[in-house]
Amino acid sequence: MVVCLSIYPKKSLQLYLASMNSKSLSSNPCRKTSFTRRFLRALAEIRREEPNSSSHVDISRRCQRIKVAAYASMASAVGSKRAWSRAMICKVRNRAICRASMRQKIKISKWKKAVANKHRRDVNQEDELRRLVPGGKSMDFCKLLEETAHYIKSLTTQVQVMRSIADYYST
Amino acid sequence: MERISCSSSRSGSCSENKPGIIEDTFEFGDGILMTGNLLQEATVPGSSFTALLGLPATQAMELLQEPQSTKAQPIPAPELWRDSRNEQETLGYSLNCSPTFPTNAALVERAAKFSIYAGAQESTDANSLPSNSSENSLKLKNEPADSESNPSSCLVFSDPATPSENQKSTKRKEREKKVKVSAKRSKNVEHGSSKTGEDKDGEKLPYVHVRARRGQATDSHSLAERARREKINARMKLLQELVPGCSKISGTALVLDEIINHVQCLQRQVEFLSMRLAAVNPRIDFSLDSLFAAEIGCLTSSSFPSAVTIEPLMWQQQQNQQQPMWEVDMLQRPAAWERGGSNSFLAHDNSLFSYNSANSVSLSSNQLKMEL
């Protein structure tokens, strides 16, 4: 009964958002709602564009797109206040701009790095953290810790929202 | 120099003559002053800042005035020492200097300072160790100090100094160290570096056992290191609270391991959930309203329809059950769409609204009122 609405009129949305905020979703309701909104929009877009086939290739490609959309919407919901969100947005944009050539280069460089890391027994924790947090390479350790804390917070909200969406759709 | 300027505005000719030496003298003088202060206010380390700043001000005033009246630069040192010593004696603590060396009092301060500033990273457990180390550093420093200081002025100074400096107590050195630690913090405050923002007034500095290191030139490095370390520790505490199960773990390495593990886990969860969403039945369309309702948790038992043909049945079911919010939404939509005229909706929704009109209009108005 509920029909697809990728583009949604804002009035009713605002009503719902108001009701949502009043129910105190989380410590940062604005971020959560804006993330949800963006993510759903992206999801609907992906649904519309891709053919609805169940082949493995299509599913994996869609999965990748959904993952990128989730990270991008989270980063844009956070805004430019955080270094990791800025780095994430740049990464997504770069990825969108030059897809083919960059992907090949990235694959090669990553493979080389993996080979190099294998020889090094003890990968430093700090380097590991830098690798995990977006934009972590060009930060001092103190700032890296701060960004990690914020990143963990946003990741938990992201996982919460995605899980509730997935649960909702699988019932 | 900055301390002087901070504490009192009358850093006059004395400061202009030889900034380096005077700064040094003020440094260890302040250390002594702070000893007295800290001992006074041992229970409130946080408020010692103002005390520290207050006392040097008065002392600095005296010191600045006195050297002007006397002759050369080494004189301020004994003057300072005497004043501070008197100050300390009034407080009831005796100086701890070996009587054999003329400039011992100054050297003790210097050496203790050096020892703490230089070796602030390590902390040993034994009480005797720092005293021994400071004594060693004392003896090490004595020779250069002897060479540099003016013997005559020192002798003049030493006579009043020696009788009261007979005792050697580790307590004083400990106190000095505490003083130095707080002196460092006050230095941070006065130097006005950005690191001072990180210093928390209520934070108690641990008792620092340090090993003397010869050749550590300036204090600013260790100051900077200490401030940086405090920053990092504060951030680590935050992270420990965020990551579940991390507060019990002690030790930076393990905590970092846990944090990395947690981040990797969350990223894997995101990937897994995106896979789930990709594999979801593609005929289900995403509706923002219903999903928002789900977010709030209003929907309890309503099942999500997967095809348009089921819709009439669903409508009836939902009417029987509690009316979820998205129904209201559905009814709101036609009005909005008719106004907005978005094409994508109307094509889909015409069949729907034919059902709506008969049954749920009356209910919807009630729901709308409830919602709003």
From TrEMBL, chain A:
Main localization of the protein described in the UniProt heading: nucleus
Protein name: IBH1-like N-terminal domain-containing protein
InterPro entries with a match to the protein in the record: bHLH_AtIBH1-like, HLH_DNA-bd_sf, IBH1-like, IBH1_N
Domain IBH1-like N-terminal span(s) in chain numbering: 32-95
Keywords on record: Nucleus, Transcription, Transcription regulation
GO molecular function, a single term: protein dimerization activity
Source organism superkingdom: Eukaryota
Entry's localization field: Nucleus
TrEMBL record, chain B:
Region described as Disordered: spans on this chain: 1-20, 122-204
Main location per the UniProt record: nucleus
Composition bias type Polar residues, residue spans: 147-167
Superkingdom field: Eukaryota
Comp. bias regions, Basic residues: 169-186
Domain BHLH: 216-266
InterPro entries: bHLH_dom, bHLH_ZIP_TF, HLH_DNA-bd_sf
Keywords tagged on the record: Nucleus, Transcription, Transcription regulation
Low complexity bias (residue ranges): 1-15, 127-137
Pfam families linked: HLH (PF00010)
Gene Ontology MF terms: DNA-binding transcription factor activity; protein dimerization activity
GO cellular component, one term: nucleus
Composition-biased stretches (Basic and acidic residues): 187-204
Protein's recorded name: Transcription factor bHLH48
Compartments, as annotated in UniProt: Nucleus
